[in-house]
Amino acid sequence: MGDPTGFIKIKRKEGGYRPLYERVYDFGEVEQTLNAEDRKLQASRCMDCGIPFCHWACPVGSVIPEWQDALYRGKTDEAYSILNSTNSFPEITGRVCPAPCEKSCVLGINDDPVTIRENECATVENAFASGIVRTRIPENRTSKKVAIIGSGPAGLSAADLLNQAGHEVHVFEKNDNIGGLLRYGIPDFKLNKSIIDRRTDIFKKEGIVFKTNVLIGKDILGKQLLKEYDAVVLAIGSEKPRDLPVEGRNLDGIHLALDFLIQSNKRVAGQDIPEKEIISAKGKHVVVIGGGDTGSDCVGTSVRQGAAKITQIEILPKPPEKRNSENPWPYWPQILRTSSSHQEGCTRKWSLLTKKFTGENGKVKQMEVVSVEWTKDEKGQWKMIEARKPQIIQADLVLLAMGFVHPVQEGLLTELGVDFTSLGNVQVNKQRQTSVEKVFAAGDVERGASLVVHAIQAGREVAKQVHDFLMKEE
Question: Of 363, 387, 402, which residue is a domain's last?
C-alpha cells in the first residue's frame, strides 16, 4: 500500500451532510464531499490487512484495497478501471449502498472503518470530471438479440455486460424514463437523477436500445418477445407491497410508501400531477409505518414537503446502538441506524402494533396502536405479546413502508407461466434460468426485495449465464 501506517496516523473523516437549515428546503443531494487531499488521506487508511474482509462482504466483489491504493497514489484512471471491472455504475452505489464493505473493514473492529463508500463516489466523480469515463462501443457483434424487462439496477447491469459481449440488447421499461426504483423509489436528496441520465446516455451510445412506456405482458405479450428474441431476462423487481389489512385501512390519507415516493420524484422532475391526485405532507401529522430505508425516505420527503409533525413507528424492538456478542464483526451489524432524514425532524417509536385507523368524513385522523413485547418461547421462536392499553396517535397522512412480499405475478409472469418459489418469487436454477425456455431472471424478482448492490451482482451473473446459453446455440 502507498502508506501502510496511514490507518495509525489518520483518523476517519467523513464528508458529512449539508447544513440542516439549508438542505430541508430543497431536494439537492444532502451529502457533501471532502477535498482531494483529505480524500487521499482517507484512502491511505486502507491498511493492507492481508485478508480483505471488505472484499468478502461486497456483493459485487469490489477489489477494494487495490483501488484504495490507486486513489491514494493519485491514479484516478486505475482506481476507476478497477471499480468499473466489477460494477457497471459505481457512482450509484457510492451514493446509495449501505456499504457492507465498511461494516467488515478490519478497522471497523474499533468503529472507524475506511470511508470506502465516499471514496468510491469521489473516485467516479473525479473520473467523469477528468474525461476518463469513455464510451466503449463493442468492436464485434453477434447475431443474437436479448430482451431485458426492467431498467433497474439488475436490468441495467445485465444490459451493459451483454451489450459489451456483442449481443443486441433491448431494455423495456414500463415507466416514462430509465432507472426503475433508482429513479422513482429513491429521493433526489439521496440520488440526483442526472447521475442516472449520465450513465444511461453512455449505455445508449454504446448500443443499448431503451424502450420506455412499454408494459410487457400488456402492451406487448411476453410470448411475442420469445418469438422475436433469443433470450429474455426478467428484471422487474419485487413490487408487491406488504399491506396492513386492519380496520379503517380504506380511509383517505393512507397510502403505500412507494406511491408517495414515486409521485414526489415525478413532481421534483417537473411532471404535472392532477391536483386531486397529489399526495402531500404539507401541514399534516404524518405517520410512517416501517423502520427501514423506504420509511426513512418517506420521512425526508415529508420534511421537504412541509409536514407539521412526523412520527415513524416500527413493530420490532429498538435495536442496540452497538454490536452485541450474538452479532460480531465482520457480519452485518444489527444496530440502530440514524439517517440524514431522521436528523431533520422525526419522532421514532419502536415495538408498536397498529390496530386500527379512525377518521372523519372518510379521511384518516387518528390511529390506534398497542405496545408489544418480544420474547422467545421454549423452542426459541420469537413471540409477540400485546399490551392491553391502546395508544392514540394523530395522523392526517399515513405511509405504509413495510416492505415487499414478492414480484407482481399478475400479467407478465402468469402469462409466461414461470414457476414460483414458496415465497412467491420467480424460481430459477443455478444458471438463473426459469422454468420457461429462453427466460432468465435476476435481482429482486427471484431473490426478493434486497439491496441495489445485490441486484447489480445478479445482473452481472445472469449476463454471463445468458451469454453462455447464446453461445452454445452457435
Answer: 402
| Cβ-contact 231, 434 below 8 angstroms | no
Among candidate residues 426, 421, 422, 433, the one with its CA nearest the CA of residue 408: 426
Cα angle value 160/166/167 (rounded, 5°): 80
Average pLDDT of the residues in 197-213? 98
**Rounded average pLDDT over 260-270:** 97
In angstroms, rounded to a whole number, what is the distance separating the alpha carbons of residues 348 and 328? 26
Per-residue model confidence (pLDDT) at position 1: 65
| N-term to C-term CA, the chain | 45
**pLDDT tens for residues 110-160?**
889 999 999 999 999 999 999 999 999 999 999 999 999 999 999 999 999
Contacts of 313 (CB under 8 A, 6+ apart): 287, 288, 289, 291, 348, 349, 350, 352, 354, 369, 393
Strand pairing report for 363-376 and 209-211: unpaired
Q: 428 with 266: CB under 8 angstroms?
A: no
In contact, 146 and 170? CB cutoff 8 Å: yes
Structural domain boundaries enclosing 298 = 243-402
- pLDDT class of 50 with cuts at 50, 70, 90: confident
- Residues 97 and 151 occupy one common structural domain: no
Please return the burial class of 39, using the count of CB atoms within 10 Å of its CB with bins 0-12, 13-18 and 19+. Answer: buried
Residue ending a domain, choose from 363, 379, 402: 402
Nearest by Cα to 149 from 173, 168, 167: 173
Q: What is the DSSP letter of 60?
A: T
